[in-house]
């Protein structure tokens, strides 16, 4: 009962404080997800942190998302919308509230949203990770470099159209005495079990 009352209070407070900046507010599995427009993202983040009725002092996590084949093509409100989103998880120690904040990038070809590092410094490396893995740009980020992949890496490996094997592989070349890159040499492998793909597997008819 207390949790329900708390979520209802948070929901009403968000609607009251943010007003028209609330694009969507979903309640599912006991958690609230606030969706805002890319143009409002930075200002909403500031309000979430500084407004005394909200006081989300901590950003716990931030990640990129690719909705291009959401639930393997199942009907969804996301399949016809923008492809890339940034999702953050916020914590208010003052009010003991948690909130998921989501913003969709307006342009699929060049996904970009504002950085929220000036609001929560912990967003710094999370945004670099989202840039590295999804190719999402964070406007006004002061040090937007790859953080997990190698120097010179091509593409963004968490995009759903990125091949599982990647485009290149690296190995140490004894003759050149250095690490080199070369096209992927992994050959496609049959992953369907023989008992499924062979009618007479094991003498079965």
How would you describe the overall organization of this protein?
The protein is α/β, with parallel strands linked by helices. It has a single domain (2-150), classed as Beta Polymerase, domain 2. Helices cover 21% and strands 27% of the residues. The chain is built from 4 helices and 9 strands. The chain has helices at 2-18, 41-50, 123-134, 194-197, and strands spanning 24-28, 31-36, 58-66, 84-92, 97-104, 112-114, 137-139, 168-173, 178-183. A 5-stranded mixed sheet has the order 1-2-5-4-3. The longest helix has 17 residues, at 2-18. The chain is globular. The model has no long low-confidence stretch (mean pLDDT 87).
Would you give the CATH topology?
Beta Polymerase, domain 2
Distance between the termini: 59 Å
Radius of gyration (CA) equals 22 Å
CATH class annotation: Alpha Beta
Q: How is this structure best summarized?
A:
The chain is α/β, with parallel strands linked by helices and 205 residues long. 21% of the residues lie in helices and 27% in strands.
Summarize the SSE layout with pairings:
Layout lengths: L1 H17 L5 E5 L2 E6 L4 H10 L7 E9 L17 E9 L4 E8 L7 E3 L8 H12 L2 E3 L28 E6 L4 E6 L10 H4 L8
Parallel strand pairs: 2-5, 6-7
Antiparallel strand pairs: 1-2, 3-4, 4-5, 8-9
Descriptors:
205 residues, Beta Polymerase, domain 2, 5-stranded mixed beta sheet, two-stranded parallel sheet
């Amino acid at each position: 009962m207390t949790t329900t009352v708390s979520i209802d209070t948070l929901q009403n407070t968000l609607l009251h404080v943010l007003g028209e900046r609330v694009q969507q507010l979903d309640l599912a599995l006991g958690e609230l997800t606030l969706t805002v427009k890319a143009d409002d993202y930075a200002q909403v983040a500031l309000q979430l942190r500084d407004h005394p009725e909200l006081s989300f002092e901590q950003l716990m996590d931030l990640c990129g998302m690719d909705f291009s084949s959401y639930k393997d093509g199942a009907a969804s409100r996301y399949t016809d919308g923008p492809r890339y989103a940034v999702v953050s998880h916020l914590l208010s120690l003052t009010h003991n509230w948690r909130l998921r904040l989501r913003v969709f990038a307006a342009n699929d070809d060049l996904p970009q949203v504002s950085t929220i590092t000036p609001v929560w410094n912990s967003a710094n490396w999370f945004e670099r990770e989202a840039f590295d893995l999804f190719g999402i740009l964070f406007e006004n980020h002061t040090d937007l470099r790859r953080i997990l992949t190698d120097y010179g890496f091509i593409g963004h490996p968490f995009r759903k159209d990125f091949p599982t094997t990647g485009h290149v592989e690296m190995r140490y070349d004894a003759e050149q005495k250095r690490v080199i890159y070369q096209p992927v040499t992994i050959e496609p492998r049959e992953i369907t079990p023989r008992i499924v793909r062979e009618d007479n597997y094991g003498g079965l008819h």
